[in-house]
Amino acid sequence: MDRAELIAELQSVLSRVDELGERVRKLSEENRSLRQQQEQLVGERSALLAKNEQARTRVEAMIARLKSLEQHT
């Protein structure tokens, strides 16, 4: 392999390394974004579960009151 071929091959390898570096950067950015979305969704889920529990507690209390009223009439 002569010098020109070696230089061409090195340039090709460097180009590929640059492409891979860019791909790693994009994947890291995407991963960060997905982790943020996951954290947000986990927080929203937690809030919805809490609201659901509050609603269930209120409904159970209303049912208990209605049963109590029913027994007194």
SSE blueprint:
Layout: H1 3-72
Question: Can you describe this structure?
Answer:
The chain is mainly α. It is rod-shaped, with a radius of gyration of 31 Å. The protein starts with a helix and ends with a helix. The protein contains one helix and no strands.
List keywords for this structure.
73 residues; single chain; mainly alpha; rod-shaped; 1 helix
Radius of gyration: 31 Å
Task: Give the number of helices.
Answer: 1
Tell me the helix content.
over 70%
Mean pLDDT: 96
Residue share in β-strands: under 5%
Assign the structural class, choosing from mainly alpha, mainly beta, alpha/beta, alpha+beta, or little secondary structure. Answer: mainly alpha
The overall strand count is 0
The shape, in one word, is: rod-shaped
Short structural summary:
By secondary structure, the chain is mostly helical. It has one helix spanning 3-72.
